């Protein structure tokens, strides 16, 4: 294609929106004019959004969702537009969540807090409320974060669910969030998670010390075509990576972490002990 512009989804939220739009359109074999005719816009307008020469609007995003069948899903472009407008989600995260909802295997690591897919609504709400108290989010943004998380979790409840492996730093289960009742319910939820046939829960104990390879959130997805993507996150940045040269070292490190972490049986027993207050 002579004038095809290469897109860089890491350039910013609107760039990620445009790149995902192009990918969804091309996956259906549609030209820009084909999508445009379905949503009431010109092919030139679609091109402008894909290449960041035009900003997406709510009307445009809703029309795209209708055409693609993304209404009310985690892949919704209208939802991504709202996140761009309000600045709720980190760069790369909406695209990651779309991939997560279709992944065959999901590997999670987190330190300090329970990973989003494993959080109860009350636990998630407590975390979101704290951002309002600190003044980093508005109430609308905080509620939007929780709603997005609930939709993200719902996308994993499929007829053929993904294999979900979660390695949690011990701090995740020992750090009290939302008060005693909220934390107790969250720990019980972890026990229920571990009992499912498509899941694995391991605790990386404090005793690992410097042997723990990760210090921040690391998510690894194995897609249906067996390709692997990674998503890393700091306080202010998110990064989605498809390059195997940088993803494979993370996969190796994750396996090494699993090898030195507690077994699922020992991990679940530790969670039980915390609930009983005996640890």
Structure, explained:
The protein is α/β, with parallel strands linked by helices and 279 residues long. It folds into 2 domains: 13-86, 434 Repressor (Amino-terminal Domain) (Orthogonal Bundle); 93-118 and 155-277, Endonuclease Chain A (Endonuclease, Chain A, 2-Layer Sandwich), CATH 3.30.870.10. It is built from 12 helices and 6 strands. It has helices spanning 13-27, 32-39, 43-50, 58-68, 77-86, 93-100, 121-134, 139-154, 170-174, 180-194, 244-260, 264-276; strands spanning 105-110, 163-169, 199-204, 218-222, 228-233, 238-241. Strands 3-2-1-4-5-6 form a 6-stranded mixed beta sheet, with helices on both faces. α7 (121-134) packs antiparallel against α8.
**Any idea of the CATH topology of the largest domain?**
Endonuclease, Chain A
Strand order, biggest sheet? 3-2-1-4-5-6
SS-derived structural category: alpha/beta
Helical content stands at 40-55%
The total of beta strands comes to 6
Q: In CATH's first tier, which class of the largest domain applies?
A: Alpha Beta
Number of domains: 2
